[in-house]
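quick one
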Amino acid sequence: MVYLNGEFMPIEQAKIPVLDRGFIFGDGVYEVIPVYSRRPFRLGEHLTRLQASLEAVGLSNPLAAAKWAELVGKIIAGNPWEDQTVYLQITRGPAKRDHTFPKGLKPTVFVMASELVPPSAELVRSGAAAIVLPDFRWLRCDIKSTSLLANCMLRTAATQAGCAEAILVREGELTEASASNVFIVKDGTVLAPPKSRLILPGITYDVVVEILRANTIAHQIRRVAESELRSAEEIWITSSSREVLAITTLDGAPVGHGGDAGKPGALFARIHALYQEYKASVMRAPAHA
Ligand SMILES: Cc1ncc(COP(=O)(O)O)c(C=O)c1O
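structure w/ pyridoxal-5'-phosphate:
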């Protein structure tokens, strides 16, 4: 079951006009919310980021936070899986084609869910392959916009190279990956680029930084040079669907040094375990706590 503009229906019945600006211009924003045991994870944070994306593109939020929570709850209840990914999208709505944002449009609001399948135990144990590509996206990567053509091109290049992700560099510095944030380990310290207009402020990134802080694991949020990425002891990617995943080969070369090169590192194992613990504790907490 999906939701479109006030109604619930099977996905086959959900239709939008061809002049919808989401279709014509990619003029819309979205969120992807992981759901574990039918409970949305970090819903408040996702709704706050949604609000920021809407404001950045001059759209007003069609629903109050409580209404979003209610709607997300209904979508979760209306779908068969215990663990889900709830996808929601707001576009500026249908209008005569014109680049300037027209005034007074009725936004299109769409929500769907799919099954959430986290990385397999085998993938967590082995880690994944990535390639490094130039970040040729725009300069507002902080907006979670549905205009994802560049990200799709970059991810497709990674897939064609037999890799799970494309890690992106701009002017000699690490930004993020095509659909995830990136952390590295250098001299035993975890490094991640600071939030800026060049990366999406990941909700999973925040969870990982909180875990690092809470467990006094050495870390620095600072700009990361491409050379540091390429010589890292460990590389991790984070996203709502992949949680924390080790990257164990970069451009075909093993990540890390010594005998453990090409295998997920010790810090990854620790963070992964802490992340799972944190998730379980949140899911055990009383509802609406
Ligand atoms: C470009 C990009 N960066 C980072 C992320 C990670 O964000 P989150 O942890 O909120 O899923 C995503 C998520 O899909 C993304 O598309």
